[in-house]
Amino acid sequence: MLQINRRVLLAGAASAATATAMSGREAAHAAAPTNGKQASGFYRYKVGDYELIAINDGVWLRAIDDKFVRNAGFADVQKALADSFQPAGKLPIPFTTLVINTGSKLILIDTGTGAQLTAMAPQSGTWDANFAAAGFDPKNVDTILISHFHPDHINGIKTKDGQLRFPNAEISVPAPEWAYWMDDAQMSAAPEGARPAFLNTRRIFADIAKDVKRFEPGGEVAPGITSIAAYGHTPGHTAFAVASGNASMLALSDTTNNPWLFVRNPEWQAVIDTDGPLAVTTRRKMLDRASADRMLVQGYHFPFPASGYITKTANGYDLMPVMWQATL
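Below the sequence we write its predicted structure tokens.
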């Protein structure tokens, strides 16, 4: 029986190099230097008659410790990372927004980091280049739907110098999210570590408050797009169902963070969830729905292109990423 291990592979590589040297023929040389960069990060797919485009905004390699998951031992968290071939001390957290082209409207769900988190996440901030590479101009966006007010979802509303990035877009946000983050009493009562998010919310919205539309989750917020209350991650956190013809998909927003941790272990409570137990209840409800309906899902922090299907397992769920499609 043929057995292949790392020692055999290394020995084979050394033998091949020796054979080349002894052949008397001149070895070929690489004609081009290595580049070290990826191609533009966007991906198109269809839901009924709608064209959806995932726009990548890079990744945050977040250092984590035993406090990141409130109700699980750090050894269990590290094992879950190792089992999914993730680095032990840093959690990859990609950022992926979703563009929905209905044929008559261009709708954007969340706006990315606005290249304003690069000090914390130096591999983020690629959204503008990827949006342009996909053939879009911010001036053409008609509607912006916001899932919640964490900086990686709202900072892209404005440029670094405070100008509106999407001058012609109507901005719609969940009313409970607005009520929480724009409340001075909530900011005063919040832990010190949450204060920057409150201040950032005011930086983004204070001077445009009169133009921001607020909706109660549970109804249609754009053609074919229904908002879904998905509270727990934040007080007004919202997911979105997109339907066209007989097809549909579920944009989970931050119902889960890294799927190898929180899809496979839905009971785990991340430190970034405002209400951990409620986030768990919401997560199970949403993942149950997705798995039962065999529904395409998109997760803001899933590996790019951030979409796939949810299957049930003995202890939780799993993500089956979509296969890359060359044509729509």
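The chain has a mean pLDDT of 92.
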